Amino acid sequence: MEEESDYSYQSSFEEEDLFFEYNHDYQEDLSPSQLEDNSSKDKNNIEIAKFNVLSIQDLIKKKDDLVNRTAQLLDLDNDTTQLLLENYRWKPQKLLEKYMENQEEALFQAGIPQDPKCSDCLQTIPDFTCPIMFESGEDVKFFSLSCNHKFCSLCYSMHISTKINNRIGYRINCPEYKCNLSLKESQIKLLLNDDSELNKYIMIIIQNYVEASDTLTWCPGVDCDKAIELPSFNKVTSRYTVSMVTCSCGTSFCFNCKNQDHRPALCQLLDMWLQKCRDDSETLNWLSSNTKDCPTCKYPIEKNGGCNHITCRNCAYQFCWVCLQDWNKHRDNYSCNIFVESASYEDEELIEVSKKNDIAIDSRKKLERYMFHYIRFDNQEKSIKLAQDLLSRTEKKIDTISKNNGFSWIEIQFLKDAVLTLTLCRNTLKWSFAVSYYMEKNNMSAIFEDNQSDLSCAVEDLNELVESKITPENIDSTRRKILDLTAYVSDRNRIFLSDTMGGYSEDRYKFMVQL
Amino acid sequence: MSTPTRRRLMRDFKRLQNDPPSGISGAPCADNIMRLLFNVFNEKQTTCLQYADTPFEDGTFKLSMSFDETYPNKPPTVRFVSEMFHPNVYANGELCLDILQNRWSPTYDVAAILTSIQSLLHDPNPNSPANAESASLYRENRREYIRRVRETVEKSWE
């Protein structure tokens, strides 16, 4: 139905395109053969759906096409059709349905007069005074829609520009109170004498058009005015997949939620997870900095004064605040000097006692479960930030190595590739913890966790290797190792992502929440 | 100085003096035509039965209206100077009235705004409350609502 636009991004982001976030002109680097390649892949080397980057001009053309086609179907003029489409959220199907059902009602709702009498021209009317600014005379031109509410052209243009600048909807009505008739685009053009205002009006219509369309979205990039079209997108399947798109400005984002790459987490999981982090992180911070858990029942205890002799209010266990040991076994009651490597929490008998407080333990367990995943999520996030430093350090390292040892710059690039791959994989790992938090334990989740731990081990190995000292003696072996490991890691990443995304679409996973 | 806004305001004001809606009197501030001060009276109106027996009866409420050069394309800023206890009036005296916000039309003039406010006093809309206490009293405890309104009416005479 739609024409292919020239802006199609069917590029395949192979290994060498890993730079593209740092290289804004990457578009020029793509050879024509890559542009024609129909199966697009993203930077994780995973197949992604085709998408187009559209400029404002493309959008205007697209909108006009839609208006044209609908106008032919309805046998109406373009201006009227545009008003109708606007009123039905740019859904031609819905419009046709309503229009066929009740033509009069559809026209009335959109503010289109039944019997268009209006001449669409400005006229002078002797002895008539404009009811807004009370202008009258021979040099005053009046305009009215079919409702015959006449106003002078000056008042009309002020009314229109106020509406445009205040962005009060896309529809501009007759200024008369409670008059439902809308101005058509051609009438607005006639009455406005300012081109910049007219452009603003057109932008409002385009904005409205993009926001109403399921397959279009604005690029969230700073100062970017492009829109992305993803023809294969629909709201239902988007619940089980993540559609990543990349704008010509270099911004890469999820088509559905406009966040940065959050695979393998689905948009809904991402939403819930971020919400949870916002809600719980403060509580968590406070708990971890101000409380200790009772060694037996793990009830959080805040010490707000007094000595180190603590009696748990929950299970009545007496212990030392400093070393968390049984108070009675404590050798010196007032100066704790027992160094314990790790306190043992597995006292069967005492756990028996605390079972009475199931609810408290349950909430504690939930918190622990959340903590477990949050700490790992947070850790990856911090590592990603550190990776930025690592990247600049690596670049320096590349410089020194190539200067001191006579290697060519291109031969050392493997280090940079390794760091970029690390960042990508850490991002995957980060969001995978949000997924595993919500995932119910079963065989499928075991596979997920295996994949997760494989990737995580490989990532840590690679990170260590990248940061290790490179000397002229070991450079050949290190280089081989890093190259191998980089390939392995990005392979693991691709497998993890594609397996998880496949799992969503085949409904393999069970979640603790309703998706 | 004569701008279209000022010319329009003069016309509005002339209309208000020649053909005043009942129960309203007003004058521009001595130093600034762009600010008008009004008294809205709510006297028992024998001709209009629905207005009788409302708790705001006999009150005299001061109201200020400020205009800027966007008038009449945008509504003026209207607020009560007198203390009010009404479901659609905020604590600072601002009003929650559709024609002063999204339903504004440039064909509205000062007299029309005042008439609308007058009818709002008699017929509050507790579903979009600006004063939550007043709105809940209006809905749930009409007697207490009337008592509180009478208090503000008595204060308005001072």
Automatic annotation (TrEMBL), chain A:
Record keyword Repeat present: yes
Keywords for the protein's UniProt record, in alphabetical order: Coiled coil, Metal-binding, Repeat, Transferase, Ubl conjugation pathway, Zinc, Zinc-finger
SMART domains named among the record's database cross-references: IBR
Annotated ranges, domain RING-type: 126-340
EC number: 2.3.2.31
A GO molecular-function annotation: ubiquitin protein ligase activity
Catalysis: reaction(s): [E2 ubiquitin-conjugating enzyme]-S-ubiquitinyl-L-cysteine + [acceptor protein]-L-lysine = [E2 ubiquitin-conjugating enzyme]-L-cysteine + [acceptor protein]-N(6)-ubiquitinyl-L-lysine
GO biological process, one term: protein ubiquitination
Pfam family, one: IBR_1
Enzyme superclass (EC): transferase
Coiled-coil positions: 377-404
Annotated Gene3D superfamilies: 1.20.120.1750, Zinc/RING finger domain, C3HC4 (zinc finger)
Superkingdom in the source lineage: Eukaryota
Name assigned to this protein: RBR-type E3 ubiquitin transferase
Organism: Smittium mucronatum
From TrEMBL, chain B:
Family membership: Belongs to the ubiquitin-conjugating enzyme family.
Record-annotated UBC core domain positions: 4-158
Keywords from the named record: ATP-binding, Nucleotide-binding, Transferase, Ubl conjugation pathway
Molecular functions (GO terms): ATP binding; transferase activity
Residues annotated as catalytic: 96 (glycyl thioester intermediate)
Protein's name in the database: Ubiquitin-conjugating enzyme E2 2
Pfam families given in the database record: UQ_con (PF00179)
Recorded superkingdom: Eukaryota
Transmembrane segments: none
